[in-house]
C-alpha cells in the first residue's frame, strides 16, 4: 500500500471501467453506500479493502437477471458483434452480461481522420443490437434507447454530428 488511506490500494491498482459498467444505473449515493459498507466489513475483518469487496457489494445490490432477460441481452450483444464482424470494425475481445448490463470489449485502432463510410459503419454497429432484437423477438426493448449513453442515443448523436458538424449531407457533396 503506497497511500495513507486504506482504500488507496483499491483506487490506484485497477481500472475503474469494469466496476462502472457493473454499477450502471446506480446513483452516486448507492455507490457511496456500497463502498462504505465494504470498507466497514474489511475493517471488521482487520484487512484492507479489496477490489472484490466492492464488486461483491455492487453485485449484492442487484436482483438476479431472469433467463428471458439474459437471452434478450445475449441476442442484443451478439447483434453488435455480428455487424462489427461483417463490416470489419475492430476486433471483439469479449462479450459479457454482467448483472443487469450487457457489454462487449473491442479493440479498435481509431483512425486519425475517419471517412464517411467509417461513421456509417459505426452507426450500423451501434444499431446492430437493436436490429438483432427486432429480428429475433419481433420488437425491441426500451433498454436500447430511452437514456443518454444508450445505443440509440449514441447513434443519434453520431448521425446528428455527421450532418451538422461534418457536412456529410448530400447537399454538401461535390457534384460528380
Automatic annotation (TrEMBL):
InterPro entries: AAA_lid_3, Peptidase_M41, Peptidase_M41-like
Residue span, AAA ATPase AAA+ lid domain: 15-56
Highest taxon of source: Bacteria
GO CC list: plasma membrane
Cofactor: Zn(2+)
GO molecular function: ATP binding; ATP-dependent peptidase activity; metal ion binding; metalloendopeptidase activity
Pfam families: AAA_lid_3, Peptidase_M41
Keyword Zinc included in the entry's annotation: yes
Domain Peptidase M41: 67-168
Keyword entries, A-Z: Metal-binding, Zinc
SUPFAM superfamilies xrefs: FtsH protease domain-like (SSF140990)
The keyword Secreted is annotated on this UniProt entry: no
GO BP field: protein catabolic process; proteolysis
Annotated protein name in UniProt: ATP-dependent Zn protease
Amino acid at each position: 500500500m503506497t497511500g495513507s488511506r486504506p482504500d488507496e490500494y483499491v483506487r490506484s491498482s485497477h481500472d475503474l471501467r469494469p466496476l462502472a459498467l457493473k454499477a450502471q444505473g446506480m446513483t452516486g449515493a448507492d455507490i457511496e453506500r456500497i463502498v462504505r459498507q465494504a470498507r466497514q466489513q474489511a475493517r471488521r475483518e482487520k484487512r484492507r479493502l479489496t477490489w472484490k469487496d466492492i464488486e461483491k457489494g455492487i453485485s449484492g445490490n442487484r436482483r438476479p437477471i431472469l433467463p428471458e432477460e439474459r437471452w434478450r441481452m445475449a441476442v442484443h450483444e451478439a447483434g453488435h458483434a455480428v455487424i462489427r464482424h461483417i463490416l470489419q470494425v475492430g476486433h471483439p475481445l469479449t462479450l459479457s452480461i454482467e448483472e443487469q448490463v450487457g457489454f462487449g470489449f473491442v479493440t479498435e485502432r481509431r483512425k486519425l481522420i475517419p471517412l464517411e463510410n467509417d461513421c456509417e459503419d459505426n452507426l450500423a454497429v451501434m444499431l446492430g443490437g437493436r436490429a438483432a432484437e427486432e429480428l429475433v423477438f419481433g420488437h425491441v426493448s426500451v433498454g436500447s434507447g430511452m437514456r443518454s449513453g444508450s445505443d440509440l442515443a449514441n447513434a443519434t448523436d453520431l448521425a446528428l454530428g455527421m450532418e451538422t458538424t461534418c457536412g456529410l449531407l448530400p447537399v454538401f457533396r461535390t457534384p460528380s
